[in-house]
Amino acid sequence: MELEEKNPDPKYGESRKFDPNFKGPIHNRGCTDVLCCILFILALLGYFAVGILAWSQGDPRKVIYPTDSRGQFCGQAGTPLE
Questions:
Q1: Do 79 and 72 touch, CB atoms closer than 8 A?
Q2: Averaged in consecutive runs of 10 residues, what is the pLDDT profile of the chain (82 residues)?
Q3: Which pLDDT belongs to residue 8?
Q4: What is the CB neighbour count within 10 angstroms for residue 36?
Q5: How far apart are CA 65 and CA 44, in angstroms?
Q6: Given this model, what pLDDT does residue 11 score?
Q7: For the whole prediction, is pTM greater than 0.85?
Q8: End-to-end CA distance of the chain, in Å?
């Protein structure tokens, strides 16, 4: 079965011919994502700051161990729910 190169699918258009002199898109190139990169770095720094604040001001046990409705730790030595 031969490929239908003469009648390509109309939704894709016609294929381009090979140009041996084509050097690629090398003219008028520049950095276009500087603003997005700066915003991404600021977001990372914000997440880092929130993580440091949560670790220094928070209680990591509340993430690891279960608590009851009053906030008392379940199954920990020295607590009423031991």
A1: yes
A2: 56 82 75 87 96 86 82 77 72
A3: 58
A4: 9
A5: 28
A6: 77
A7: no
A8: 77
| Per-residue tokens: 27 | 């003219």
How far apart, in whole angstroms, are the C-alpha atoms of residue 60 and residue 73? 12
- According to DSSP, the residues that pair with 73 across neighbouring strands are 67
Output DSSP code: residue 33: -
Paired residues of 67 in beta bridges = 73
Question: Could you say which DSSP state residue 69 is in?
Answer: T
Contacts of 66 (CB under 8 A, 6+ apart): 73, 74, 75
Integer angstrom CA distances of residue 77 from 61, 67, 73, 74, 82: 13, 13, 9, 9, 6
Q: Give pLDDT, residue 39.
A: 94
Please, which residues have CB within 8 angstroms of residue 67's CB and are 6 or more apart in sequence? 73, 74
